[in-house]
Structure prediction request, 194 residues.
Amino acid sequence: MHNNIEMKEYFDRLAPSWATDESEKVIREEIQRMSDFKSGAVIADIGSGKGVMVPHLLETNPSCIIEIDISSEMIRFAKEQWDDIRIKFLCGDILQLDVPPCDAAVIFNALPHFVDRRKLAQKLASILKPKGTVIIAHSKSRKAINEIHREGISETLSAKLQSPLEEYENFKQYFSLDNTEDSSRMYFIKMTKL
Prediction:
C-alpha cells in the first residue's frame, strides 16, 4: 500500500508539467496500427496519464475507452482534455480496481511502473474477455526507457524494462505471444488471452 501512495504522489506532482511529445506522434500511430483493434472494442488504457493515446485509440472506433491511472491529477487533466461519451475514467491502482470486461488493454509508456508484473498479468487476464488483446508499448527504445527510469526514480516506483521475451515470461500462463519489437525506435509486445 505504501508503494501506491508514493506512486500517486509522484505522478500527482508531475501532472501539471507532464507534456505530450509530439515528435513521437508517428510512433504512437504505428503502435495503434500494429495493435489492430477491432471496431466496437472496449479498450482499457492502463497508466493512461493525461490520455496521450486517446486520439489514436479513437481512430479504431471503439465502443468505450477506459482511461485508468493511479494519479487523480493525471485523471483530472485527462477529463479536462477529452470530452467524448465513449471515454470513461477510473482513478486508482489497476490491481485493486473493479474494471468492466474489456476486449483489449493498452499499457503505453508505463510498464516499468508495474513492479510486480505477475500480478499485473493476472489482473489483465481477469478483466479481458476471451481472446482479448494486451499491448505493451513504448515510444522509445528499451535502452532509452531504462536510462530514464534509472535517473531519479526510486526502485519502489520502477522496475527495469526487460526484453519482450523476458517480460513475456510473466504473462505466459494467461497469454500467447503474437508480436514483438525491441528496436532503437520503439518497444512493442502484443499478446492474446489464452
Notes: The longest helix spans residues 2-14. The radius of gyration is 15 Å. The chain has one domain: 2-193. The mean pLDDT is 90.
